[in-house]
Specification:
Helix content is 35%, strand content 0%. With 98 residues, the chain is mostly helical. The chain is elongated. The model has no long low-confidence stretch (mean pLDDT 85).
């Protein structure tokens, strides 16, 4: 098994992170296939203690809390781009503009 790390130094959004992960995965796959072909595969048991499950993203999770720190708002907008998209209300939650 091989691993790679997606560095946090770049401002990824959902889409760009997915593209980068796809590139990294294809590179790792080629390396694994080369190792199998040369007779030197790597085997590593997955550590069950490090397995995580991500909760389902609900629409309300995309609502921007403008009282949050700027970094939190920035990260939410990046994470929800392009879908489900971060949103806000100009005149309060569910209010009709006047």
């Amino acid at each position: 098994m091989l691993r790679s790390v997606l560095t946090e130094g770049r401002s990824y959004n959902f889409y760009s992170a997915g593209e980068r992960l796809a590139e990294m995965g294809s590179q790792l796959l080629l390396e694994v296939l080369d190792r199998f072909d040369s007779g030197v595969p790597l085997f590593e048991k997955q550590d069950a203690g490090r397995v995580t499950l991500a909760p389902r993203i609900e629409k309300v999770d995309s609502l921007i809390d403008w009282s949050a720190p700027a970094t939190t708002v920035h990260n939410l907008v990046r994470a929800m781009n392009p879908k489900p998209v971060a949103y806000s209300f100009l005149h309060g939650a569910g209010a009709t503009p006047t």
